[in-house]
Amino acid sequence: MSFRVSKGGHIDRSRSLKFTFDGKTYAGFVGDTLASALLANGVHLVARSFKYHRPRGILAAGSEEPNALITVYRDAARYTPNLRATQVELYHGLQAKSQNRWPSLRTDFGRINDQLSAFFPAGFYYKTFMWPRKAWKAVYEPIIRRAAGLGVAPTQADPDRYAQRYAHCDVLVVGSGPAGIAAAMSAASTGARVILCDENSQFGGGLLSEADHSATRIDGLMIRHWIAQAIQKLKENSRVTLLTRTTAFGYFPHNFVALSERVTDHLENPDLHLVRERLWQIRATSVILATGAIERPLVFPGNDRPGVMLAGAASTYLNRYGVKTGSRAVVVTSGDAAYTTALDLHAAGVVIDAIADLRTAPVGAWVEAAQSAGIKIIAGATVLDTQGNVRVRRIDLGQVVSGTVVKLQPINCDLVLMSGGYTPSVHLFSQSRGKVEWSDTVKSFVPGRSAECERSVGACRGIYDLSEVLTDGAATGLALASKTPISVQSASFTVKAMPIDTNPYVGALPQPDSQSSSKAFVDWQHDVTTRDLALATREGFRSIEHVKRYTTTGMATDQGKTSNLNALAIVAQTLGVPIPQVGLTTFRMPYTPTTFGAFAGISRGDLFDPVRTTATHEWAQARGAVFENVALWKRARYFPRANEDMHAAVARECLAVRHSCGIFDATTLGKIEIVGPDAAEFLNRMYVNSWSNLNVGRSRYGILLREDGFINDDGVIARLAADRFHVTTTTGGAARVLGTMEDYRQTEWPDLKVWLTSTTEHWAVIAVQGPRSRDVLQPLTDIDMSASAMPHMSVALGAICGVPTRLFRVSFTGEMGFEVNVPADYGRAIWEAIFAAGQFHGITEYGTEAMHVLRAEKGYIIIGQDTDGTVTPDDAGLTWAIGKNKLDFVGKRSLERASMKTATRKQLVGLRTPNGEVLEEGAQVTLRTGQKPPMALVGHVTSSYFSAVLGYPIALALIGGGRARLGQTLYVPMPNGDIKVEVTAPVFYDTPGARING
Amino acid sequence: MLIIDCPYCGRRPEIEFTHGGEAHLVRPPQPAELSDQDWAAFLYMRSNTKGIYAERWRHARGCGQFFNALRDTTTDHFLSTYKSGTPRPVVNTTPSEEGHS
Ligand SMILES: [Zn+2]
C-alpha cells in the first residue's frame, strides 16, 4: 500500500527508483531519502534497539535520528554501517539492511533482553560483570559485544578515494535555513568571501518542510520560490561557495572549522574519477552558526514504538517528500507547532483523532484553525501508555484535572506525533568553547558569550519567528562581514506568517501514582529510560557528567540530540534542583559520525608517511635485502642468500665481519656540524664528556643527558678543526637532539658563538668493519690508514676514489673498523667501488640485525633499546665517559641526587642461558623461581640474540643492583615455565678489546 | 589548528611549530649550588595556568627560532608572541571581546 500523496513536495514523481531493504524490493522517487521511501511503502519497523532489541521506527527526518540506523551495501568493500536512514539519499538499486537483529527484524531473538530488562539497569556493566574476573573476557564480553551492537565494519580495505581541501573565507555560514540564507546574502552583499554549507542535499533547511499550500510568504514569494531566488543570487556571486551534503562536524580554535562533504554516496554509479568524500578544513575570519533547532520528543511510557514520531518529522515527510506517515493519528504537543502538522495531515486525508495538548487552556489562531477543521482538542493532556508490537495501534491518554491525572478512553491509531517544542542546536557553538546559558523562555541552553569570532543566528539561539529569524541572520551577516556593530541597518523582509507559540516542554510527562510498567524512553539510541535516570540519582549520582557515564544517556553516536534536555530535566526534577545546576555536558566533534576515510584523505599506503631511503637503497633492493623501518628510514635488515632464513643470513653476516670484512650502510645516523669559536665550550655544556682536550683529528664517544640526568642520546663526535666538530646522533634522535641543542643555544646561552647545522642528508656513511677493512680501503684512498697514522677513534680528511671524504676510524662491532663519509650523491658509486675492491677479501654486506648482534656481543648499548629514559650513565656502565673536572653539563646536577646513586638501581649486565634458550626481549627477570603472579621482579631483558661467533645465545638486561650479582642465577618466567639465566658482564666477546686496535 | 604569529616570520599554522613548555624558566647558572629540592623544582614544577600562560614555541619547520607567547589556555587565543630573552609583555588580562581580536 502506498502512503504517497499525489502531488507536492520536493520529489520528482516522474523518476521512479527501485531499492531493497533487507532483500525486499520497494519503489521510491528521486528526491527521497531511504526513510521517506520506506514510509511511503508503509514500512515503519526499521531497526532493533541497542540494548533491549526493541522494535524501532523512524523518529525524525534529519541527522538527529536515533533509531533508524541502517547499513548501505554497494559491494563487499563498499558498505557503510550505522547510517541514518533519514539522511541516506535514495538512488536506483540502493541496497539497505537493518542492523542489530537475528534472525530477522520482525523476529529478533535479542528481544529477550527486553523481557530480562530488570537485569540490565543503568550501570549494569559495572555491577554484574565484576566477578568472577576471568569470566569477563571469556564469557561476558563476547556475549555483550554480540548482543548489544550497531552495524558491522567491512572486512576489506576501503577502495574509495578521499580528498582534503583547505579553504579561507571571510564568513563561513553553517546551515541554510532562513537564518543562514539571510546571513549569507547580506554578508555576500558586502563583497566578502562567503562559504555556505548545509548537511542536506538541498538548501532551505526547515523551510523545505513548509507545505506547498502554506500561506506563508517572504517578500511576497512562496517559500520555495524565495529559496530558489536567494540561492540563485548566491550562485551568481563568484565570491560565494555553496556546499550541499556538507556537514560542519568540528569547530576548532581560531575559527578552524572542519566540514565533511559527501560527494558520491547519493549516486547510483559514481564516476570513478570522483572522490567519495571531501574534508574541508576552513579558516574563517568569522563564523555564523545557523544550525537550527531540533524538535524535542516527549517522554511517556511506550514512546518508542514504531509509529511514534516527532510531529515536525511528519510535516517534513508530508510536505517535502509527499508521504503520509500513517492513516489515523493522535498529535501530542506542548505548543502550537504540532498544530501545523495536524492541519497539514488532516488536509492530506489523515484522520486526526485528537490533538492532546499539554496546555491546560490552549488558545489562539492555531487552536481555532484546528477546531474549525473539526479536530478534537484535549486540554491538559498527558500520555499514559501506548500499545502495539511492531507498530503503535493504541494510545492511552490521560488528563490532568486539578493536579490529578485521570485516565481517558484509549484511542486506536497507527501514528502518534509528539512535539515538546524545540532544542536549539548549540553543538558547534559549544565545540567552539562558547559558554551556553540557560533560558527559561526557550527551556533550553542557548549561546551566551562567544569564545571565537562567531555568532549564532535564528533557531539555534532560540529565535523561531520567521520574520525575526530572517532579520537576525541578515543583520549578523552584514555585521560580521563588514566588521561593523550589529545595530547597522540591514536588509528587511516582509513576512506573512501566523505566529507560533512554541511553549517548550522539558522532562517526563505527568503520570498517575500507579503508572504503566511500559518503559518511557529518554535516549532512544542507547535505550535509557526514566527509570534508569531515577536509579542513577538514587544511587548518589548528582552531576549530569556522572549520570551520563553511569546510564550512558547522550553517549550514543547521536550525542543525545533528542535526549539531553529531557535527561537533564528529569535528573534536576528528581534532585529537586534547577536544571542549570545539574549542568550541560560538553559537546564534542563530530556533530554526526564522520568516516575515517575523510580524516585519512590521501595519507594511505605509500603516502601514509614520508619514506626516507639512503643512496644504496636500490642496490640493497637488488641484492634481495629485507628492510625494516627505523624512524622514517628504510634500512636493510639482512641480506638473505638462496634459501637462508633470517637466522642463517644474520649468522653468516656476523661471521664475515668477525673473520674478514663487512660493509654496512650507516647513513641514517643523525649528523650535526657544530662550528664556531665556542663550539668546544658548547659541547662541554651539552655532553657529559670533556671536549676542550680532544685533539683535532680525533673523536670520542659522547653521551647526551636530559636535564633530569637520564641518557638522551649518544654518538661519536670528531674534531675536524679547533672550531669545527662533526657530531653523530642516533638515527631516531637526530631531529630531537638538534632541537635540544638549538633550545640551549638560543635560549640559555645566546652569548656563545656557535652554529648548528643538520648534515644528516648530506653525507652517505659506509661502514667497513672487520680485520680486513684496512686492506679493502687503503688502495682506494690517499689517506694513510696505517695503525700509527690512523689509530682507533681518529678521523682524517682526504679523498676516496677521487671523491672528498671524512674518514673515521670507529667501530660499533669491536673489530677494526672505518666509516667512510662521502657527499650523499657519491654514496652509491663509492659503495660499489668499495664492494668491488673488497671482493678479494670476502667483503660481505650486512644489515641492521647483524649490526645489533655484533654490538651486543661487545656490550655496546642502543639508545631506546637498552635504555628507556630512566637509565643514567652509571646504570649503563658508562661513568668512564663523564668529564672528571667539569663543573656543569646538561643533567649533571641531577646525577648528584641521592636516588641516582642507590646500589639497587637497575644496571646493565649480560645474561647467559645455561640451557641455550634465546630469551625474549622485554621479558621480566625474577630472583626466585616458581613464583605466582604478581611476582617480585628485579629487572628485564633489553637485547637478546644468538651469537654465531660464540655459538650460544647472549642477552643484555637491566637488573636491580646488577653489577653486584655477577655469577648469580636468576629466572625469566615464561608461559612454559621459568628459564634459568646467569648474570655476566655485558661484554661477551674479546673482553680485553684487542681486536679493535688491529 | 592554531594560527601562531612567529616574531620572525609572521602568522603560520600550528603544524609548523613545536611546543616548548613554560617560558621564562631560566636554567640556574650554578646548578651545583642548588639544594635537591630547588633543583627538582626547576626540573619539574610548572605553573600549568588556567588562563594566560607564558609558553615557548619553536618555529621548527620554518625559521627554527624559539620564541615566547602568551596564550589564554581557556580559549587558545594568543595575546602576544615575542622574542626569547625579552620580558613578558604586560597585557590586558581580560581576553579580547568574544574573540574579536
Ligand atoms: Zn619563524
Describe the structure.
- The complex is a heterodimer of chains A (998) and B (101).
- Chain A is an alpha+beta fold.
- Chain A contains 24 helices and 51 strands.
- In chain A, a hairpin with a 6-residue loop joins β21 and β22.
- The longest helix of chain A is centred in the middle third of the chain and has 17 residues, at 466-482.
- The radius of gyration of chain A is 37 Å and the shape is elongated.
- The model of chain A has no long low-confidence stretch (mean pLDDT 94).
- Chain B is mainly beta.
- A 4-stranded antiparallel beta sheet of chain B has the order 3-4-5-6, with no helix packed on it. In chain B, strands 1-2 form a two-stranded antiparallel ribbon.
- In chain B, a hairpin with a 7-residue loop joins β4 and β5 (66-72).
- The longest helix of chain B is centred in the middle third of the chain and has 9 residues, at 36-44.
- Chain B starts with a strand and ends in an 18-residue tail after the last strand.
- The A-B interface holds A 252-256, 281, 283, 433, 449-454, 707-708, 739, 742-743, 746-748, 750, 887-888, 892-894, 896-898 and B 1-3, 18, 20, 26-27, 30-32, 34, 36, 39-40, 43, 56, 58, 60, 64-66, 74-77, 84-85, 98-101.
- The structure holds zinc ion.
- Zinc ion binds at residues 6, 8-9, 59, 62-63, 65 of chain B.
Task: Name a few traits of the molecule.
heterodimer; A: 998 residues; alpha+beta; Ubiquitin-like (UB roll); FAD/NAD(P)-binding domain; six-stranded mixed sheet; 22% helix; B: 101 residues; mainly beta; Folate-binding fold; two-stranded antiparallel sheet; 1 helix; 6 strands; globular; disordered C terminus; binds zinc ion
